[in-house]
Amino acid sequence: MLDRIQAFLHTLTGSHHTQEFAPDDPRVAFVALCFQVMEADGNISDQEQQKFRDLLRERYDLSEDRLKTLIEVGHQAGSEAVDYYRFTSDLRKHLVNEEDRVELLGILWDIVYADGQRSEIEDHVIWRIADLLGVSARDRVLERQQAAARATLGDQGED
Fold first, then answer.
1. Mean pLDDT of the chain
2. Residue 15: DSSP 8-state
3. Does residue 18 lie in a domain region?
4. Measured torsion, CA atoms of residues 1, 37, 82, 94, in degrees rounded to the nearest 10
């Protein structure tokens, strides 16, 4: 699963290795959408936070200070947003093929399932994001099912 996350996040990094995170940086858009999903049910669990930080740390190879800055900038952008369009629009510029956009949904579902729970409001948020990214309902549901299966397998591995 980490290979999948790494491959996806690599598509977002491209030539974006600057000191600051620009508002249209796809990494900021990705972090903002992750926060939108994590905050949807009114509770960001420790497991969701850990999964989120792990995937960012693994892929972006940022110092702890830069990682913290990216998270703060993304969280702030998400807090100020009135909808998801800004972020999905930025991501669509960088995720030119459908496979990458579907993979983004898979990662969002992995974050949802990190705490072993899925709420209707998380479903709704991901449905809206999928719609704006142009991902079909079929692919959205398949990614959800695959994330649920990965979470179940991960839980069994911890016993």
1. 86
2. T
3. no
4. 10
